[in-house]
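Illustration: Oligomeric Golgi complex subunit 8.
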Amino acid sequence: MQPLEGMADPLLDILVPHLPTSIAPSLTASSRAVLLSDYIQHIRGLSVSSISSETAQLNASLQNVERSLTNLAINSRPHLISTSATLEAFTDSFNSLALSIPPLSQIIPGLKSNVSQFHPVNDRHPSATLLSNVDKVLDILELPSLVLTCVRNGYYAEALDLVGHVRRLAIRYKNVKVIEMIQAEVEDALLEMTTLLLRLLRENVQLPTAIKVISYLRRLQPFQASPNPKLELQHIYLLSRMIHLKSQLQSLEPLKSIPEKYLKRYIEFFREFVFAAIIGFRSIFPKDGEGDKDSSNDGSGTGVSSTQLKGSDYVDDISVVDAGEQLLSSFIYHTTMDLKKTVKEMLPMIPDKSSYAVLYLQVIYSSQSLARVGGEFWGIMADEEDRKEYVAANQTNPWVVALEKQRDLAKKLKSY
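Result:
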């Protein structure tokens, strides 16, 4: 046997002729030649005694390799079967695809013709438009919750601005269901806002807040659609202030066990809140035109008309301003009648008659204080009926006596 090509090792040249003919050709592979060369170098490094045992070690290594291959074959049997089945299925699919290629090549020209007639840009235009405006759409969908948040946190001006925006959208995009639903939700939020504003008027609000509340109410739909929004708002304002006054006076109920103290506090509350209500009315609903004239004393001493008006008792020739003045007169009249009733009920419960004059003077001061804003009520407190009762009893009217004392005191103060 000829030495293997590329092998220049003398020891290998000696061994090759003694190798089986089935092994020698396989050693021509470059990878195996390298391994064989490395093994020969390994043998050269062995001692003579170790070389005799090399055959046994090679046989043991061979058995280990065979054992490992056997275990690998047993453990990998499912994977080998699965791989074989997959390879077989892939071969069948590939063969089927090869058979389908000729018919497919016949379809391609017709497919090209159909593609040339297809306009995907036009078909996708609505979706592309929606996608490019998704932020604006989300802003519109969030308008109802934003309005409700503004209302519940007291940002009424911002809420009304958003409502105006929604109404403009409803006009611009008519018959769009989403816009109609959004507008309906916004209108529900406005109802809650109306309730909160009306409730706020019944609290102890300062004049700037009351002016803002009325201005917000003017912008709401119920009042915008009303034929007389100003008159309705005047009625609501005075009614709310009367309810607030009564709630404040009810807080004095525990003091009834001390009649004199109760009456003093009652008169103080009356003067403070009625004065504030009249000032608020004049500021929120200022007079305009010649229809508003300062009314003279009509015998009741109120300084304004004390005619009691109810609902639709207004005649056609009465202006809105005149009707508002009559509403204010009615407010003063009813609150004063409550004061008069309370004074008459509580006075007999005060054992010290000398304190009557002090209380009478306190009422007179209140009347004169309100007279500065057109709310003098002295004529109601000491009306003709009271005078007749005292004349019949042959007694001096204590109201008249108190009034004379007050006038004398005023004269003395002016003389200084």
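Reading the tokens back as a structure: The mean pLDDT is 77.
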